[in-house]
Specification:
The chain has 201 residues and is mainly alpha-helical. The N terminus is likely disordered. α2 crosses α5, α5 packs parallel to α9 and α8 packs across α9. It is elongated.
């Protein structure tokens, strides 16, 4: 038996496994985006990815775990936000973070998966819990670590609430005139509030 035959009949190569995982994650993001958390199923994800449902369970586990893995990838651009807080003078931290966050939302490539995450989180308690864990552990606590004040965690959460709330109204609910307002005008109004949370008295 040749090595190639043995590999086909045995475990997949690392490259094949990575490709399969990536296809499942891409399919999951597509399904969650189009159907929302409740209407998405492991079977539907598997069908879109062109794999057996058992492979979805093998690589990720439950639907909740697939959702968490999918949104971690989609949320990845936002995870650089703590660096945006750290790099530069304290008196401009609000503008840096605000500009960074809205830069992600303004980019169609990064906006689409974020919209899928927020829609699922708003409509389903399980999805909301997953999103909350991710935001809390990988974003807000890391931002709080950059804030040299006693109530740093609360300050980071209030800054996050300001930014997420504005993003929800502008990009998800599309409330006018906020939805069509000039981005620089929004940054000029929101950044001082974020500054106050992260560095004010």
């Amino acid at each position: 038996m040749s090595e190639g035959t043995a590999r086909r009949r045995g475990r997949p190569s690392r490259a094949e496994a990575t490709d399969t995982r990536d296809r499942i994650l891409a399919a999951a993001r597509e399904e969650f985006s189009e159907r929302g958390y409740e209407k998405t199923s492991v079977r539907g994800i598997a069908k879109t990815a062109g794999v057996d449902p058992a492979l979805v369970h093998h690589y990720f586990g439950t639907k909740e775990q697939v959702f968490e893995a999918a949104i971690e990838v989609a949320f990845a651009p936002a995870l650089s936000a703590p660096e945006a807080v750290a790099e530069g003078p304290v008196d401009a931290v609000g503008e840096r973070l605000t500009r960074f966050v809205f830069g992600i939302w303004e980019n169609p490539t990064t906006r689409a998966p974020l919209l899928a995450i927020l829609r699922s989180a708003v409509n389903n308690d399980t999805a909301a819990a997953v999103f909350r864990r991710l935001v809390s552990s990988q974003l807000l606590r890391r931002i709080a670590a950059q804030v040299d004040l006693p109530d740093a965690e609360l300050r980071a959460e209030l800054a996050g609430a300001q930014l997420v709330g504005t993003a929800m109204l502008r990009y998800v609910i599309k409330v006018e005139p906020l939805a069509s307002a000039d981005l620089e005008q929004i940054i000029a109004r929101v950044a001082p509030v974020v500054q106050g949370h992260l560095a004010g008295s």
